[in-house]
Specification:
There is one protein chain. This protein is an alpha/beta fold and 278 residues long. The protein has one domain: NAD(P)-binding Rossmann-like Domain (Rossmann fold, 3-Layer(aba) Sandwich). The chain is built from eight helices and seven strands, in the order βαβαβαβαβαβαβαα. A seven-stranded parallel beta sheet has the order 3-2-1-4-5-6-7, with helices on both faces. Helix 6 links the parallel strand 6 and strand 7. Helix 1 packs parallel to helix 2, helix 3 packs parallel to helix 4 and helix 4 runs parallel beside helix 5. The longest helix has 29 residues. The chain starts with 8 loop residues before the first strand and ends in a 15-residue tail after the last helix. GO terms for molecular function: oxidoreductase activity, acting on the CH-OH group of donors, NAD or NADP as acceptor. InterPro entries: NAD(P)-bd_dom_sf, Sc_DH/Rdtase_CS, SDR_fam. Keywords: Oxidoreductase. Belongs to the short-chain dehydrogenases/reductases (SDR) family. It comes from Agromyces tardus.
Length: 278
C-alpha cells in the first residue's frame, strides 16, 4: 500500500468518537475515497459523519451506519448495506471495544458484562472481518486489517479479568489470521495487531500508568498505528515496555514476575482507581 490512504475505502468500527473518530480524521486528511463509520451511538455518529463530511469538502465520501456489534446478527445485515452502498473496504479497522472494570471477577453483577465484553471485543472483530475478507482476498489489491487489542491481552491484570480475556482472544485470532493469509499466498492482505497500554481517551479514566508505561496520548498512538497499517507491519506494541514485559513474562518464573514486575512496577495496581467514562 502507498504511504498514504489516498483513494482507499476505509471502514472503522466504533467510529463515532474517541480513537475511532481520530482514525477517520486521519483517513479524510489523507484523501481516502470513502470512510465508513460503524457505531451504536446514533447521535454521536451523525455529528461525526457531518463534521467529517464538511472537513473533506467533498473529496471523501463519508457514510455512517448505526449498528451494535454485540448483536452479531446485525453485523451481516450492516455489511450487506455497506457492500450495496459503497462496496467492500480496502482497509478495515476493528476499533470498537468496551471495558467493564474495577471489580474482581467474582464481584461482577452477572454474566451480562462477561457476555457483552467477549462479544464486542473478541467475537465482533471476527464476524466483521469474515464479512469483508473474502473480497479483499479475491481482489488482489493491497488491503489492510487492523485489530486494536490491548497490552492487557498479553498480561493478566487484576480487576479486568474478562477484558484481558477478550483481548487475549483477539490477539490469538489476529496473529493466526495473519499467518494463514501469508501461508495461503495472500500477501496483499496484511494484518496488524495493536497492543497498547492505557490511552488517555476517557475509556480508562482513573487508571494509573505503571512504571515504564505512562498513559499514552491518543495522537501519538494514532500516528504509530496508521504508519504500521500502511507499511503492513504485523505488530504494534506501545510503549516499548509492553514488549519488554511480554519477554520477561516468558523468561521469569511466575511468582518472580508477579513480585518484580507485576507488583514492583505497579502493573497489578493500575486499575485500583479506575472510573471509566462513568
Amino acid at each position: 500500500m502507498a504511504n498514504t490512504a489516498r483513494g482507499a475505502h476505509i471502514l472503522i468500527t466504533g467510529g463515532a468518537g474517541g480513537m475511532g473518530r481520530m482514525y477517520a480524521e486521519r483517513a479524510v486528511a489523507e484523501g481516502a475515497a470513502s470512510v465508513v463509520l460503524w457505531d451504536r451511538d446514533a447521535g454521536a455518529l451523525a455529528r461525526t459523519a457531518d463534521e467529517l463530511g464538511a472537513a473533506s469538502r467533498g473529496r471523501t465520501q463519508v457514510r455512517s451506519y448505526v449498528v451494535d456489534v454485540s448483536e452479531l446478527g446485525a453485523i451481516a445485515k450492516t455489511a450487506h448495506k455497506v457492500r450495496r452502498d459503497i462496496g467492500d473496504p480496502d482497509v478495515l479497522i476493528n476499533n470498537a471495544g468496551i471495558v467493564r472494570g474495577n471489580r474482581y471477577f467474582w464481584e461482577t453483577d452477572s454474566g451480562d458484562d462477561t457476555r457483552a465484553t467477549m462479544q464486542v471485543n473478541a467475537l465482533a472483530p471476527m464476524y466483521v472481518t469474515r464479512e469483508f475478507l473474502p473480497a479483499m482476498v479475491a481482489s488482489g489489491r493491497p488491503a489492510r486489517i487492523v485489530n486494536i487489542a490491548s497490552a492487557a491481552g498479553t498480561l493478566g491484570n487484576p480487576r479486568m479479568a474478562v477484558y484481558a480475556a477478550s483481548k487475549a482472544a483477539m490477539i490469538g485470532w489476529s496473529d493466526s489470521l495473519r499467518i494463514e493469509l501469508e501461508q495461503a499466498g495472500h500477501d496483499h492482505v496484511r494484518v496488524t495487531t495493536v497492543t497498547p497500554s492505557y490511552i488517555a481517551t476517557g475509556m480508562f479514566a482513573g487508571a494509573r500508568g505503571p512504571v515504564l508505561a505512562p498513559v499514552l496520548e491518543p495522537a501519538y498512538v494514532i500516528d504509530k498505528v496508521w504508519r504500521a497499517m500502511l507499511d503492513g507491519r504485523a505488530l504494534v506494541e506501545l510503549p516499548a515496555s509492553v514488549r519488554l514485559s511480554r519477554v520477561l513474562r516468558g523468561i521469569l518464573p511466575t511468582r518472580t514476575f508477579d513480585r518484580l514486575i507485576g507488583h514492583g512496577l505497579g502493573i497489578y495496581r493500575s486499575m485500583e482507581e479506575y472510573t471509566g467514562r462513568g
